[in-house]
Amino acid sequence: GRGGRNMLTLVIGENNSGKSRWAEQYAAANREGRLVYLPTMIAADEPSLERIARHRRQRRGLGFITLELPLNLCQAEIEPDDTVLVEDISNLLANQLFAHQTAANTPAVPAQLQNLCGRCGQVIAVTIGGLQPSREYDAATNAYIAALNQLNAELADCAELVVEMAAGRPLVRKGAIPCRC
Hints:
Blueprint: E1 7-13, H1 19-29, E2 35-39, H2 46-59, E3 64-66, E4 83-87, H3 89-99, H4 109-117, E5 122-128, H5 139-158, E6 161-166, E7 169-174
């Protein structure tokens, strides 16, 4: 094991920036125990079903165990040496804010990630970055964007490694990538 080093890696980028694929390959290359994939998207329509299918194809053959827990990551059955990939934080936050009444009883997203980090070798969390509030959006959407930006800043502060995907390339914003991925 890592001897108590429960590392958090934050992978941030705009939609379709390559962040998910990079995070999956990074997790597979830097694993110690099992690879656990925690998807947070709730399939609500055809585009979300296609995105889920694309992500399944993308990680095929990498050895991930998938646990569907879109509301409460604290329920994940994980082991101390596991490498856990959370895909993604923006969906988890949206699920808590909008999707389900049952989310009212779940811990806040930072507490869920802290719980995971305390129970496994490393957590790799993917999130959307670069969103800006706009007059074109309703108040709830602007509030969500502000909450996501605040959450991303908090997670970046406590992460050991922050990687921003830009034009399909990983840019290290904090820490150092331990291998070539």
